[in-house]
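ok posting inputs for the tryptophan job
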Amino acid sequence: MSSAQPETPAATEAVSPTFLSGIQPSGSPHLGNYFGAIRQHVASLEEPGEHFFFIADYHALTTIHDAHELRTNVRELAATYFALGMDPERAVFFRQSDVPEVTEITWLLSTVTGMGLLERAHSYKDKLANGIKPSVGLFTYPILMAADILAYDSTVVPVGKDQIQHIEMAQDMATHFNSRFGDVFVRPEPRLPARDDMAKVPGLDGQKMSKSYGNDLWIFEEGKKLKKAVGRIPTDSRAPEEPKDPDGVMLFEFLALFLDDEELGDWRARVAAGGEGAPGYGHLKVRLVEAIDAHFAPARARRAELLDDPAELDRILARGAERARERATAVRDRASKACGLR
Ligand code: ADP
Ligand code: TRP
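and the output
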């Protein structure tokens, strides 16, 4: 990051994109988080521009109220990112709570955000429908998320499908603020993974994979537990010989994430044809376990090494925080000046 801060958002936009995204450290990162988020975050490093990625620990406090668990999850998520290719030299990688300016921006945005906007949030409504008693923090979660995005003059926010509405809300908040106080915040745009199946990875029960549905598969699961998890993917009682439409076989949704087109096409054709020697669901499951294993084996070893040295992980996060604060402070100053606070 250059030390000369652009004075106006317009100046930032003209230069090059600023990528930003975050994931909550609310449990073990799963395949949905990998394909929908982490993989795209790592891939974006190949594109010119600035890159900000963070661990959303303030957001996780809306669900986790155990200090040890939160600290452990933060290191776990950092090690996961680094093992999967996030390069803290090329990206500003940090912990959300190390940048307190974000909570100040949250307050400024909350004063221009209508209750109605928040009441329409799908993720909030889903949580209510699931019987969760909402805290004020859960209700205002999208404002904190908007502040995360706007605090770094982000222009591109790579996420999975479920987060799109939150980014649209950030756009609305930026517009409301700017229309009252001038050209302060940059308008961010969401970016989904190029493949639709990666933007919404199914869970082991066929619904969207999510920690909160208990249908998720940890990225680094291995051995018996991995086999057992893959064993949960629903199948039916049709015999291998019976020809089947591969689009109706859920296992293919998972295999498509890991196999190359040629191999995938071959398995699909054999299932569609049926007859003697056609693969049964058991064969597909064995292949899926192997494919997951092979895909994550190198990262698994790297993750273990990183977790062996938590002090080094903390040092990397501290370096990221310093760089992130520099930007967030400039944006906080711009916003508070515009509304008459400084
Ligand atoms: P969860 O729903 O398990 O709590 P998060 O809300 O923490 O997951 O999501 C972190 C990131 O991972 C977000 O960018 C989100 O869009 C992405 N993500 C989560 N679940 C999936 C999924 N099933 N498919 C694709 N992306 C997902
Ligand atoms: N709400 C996001 C999730 O649950 C995490 C998040 C917090 C985020 N702040 C963000 C994502 C800013 C993108 C941009 O996954």
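notes: DSSP finds 15 helices and five strands in the chain. The first helix runs from residue 9 to 15.
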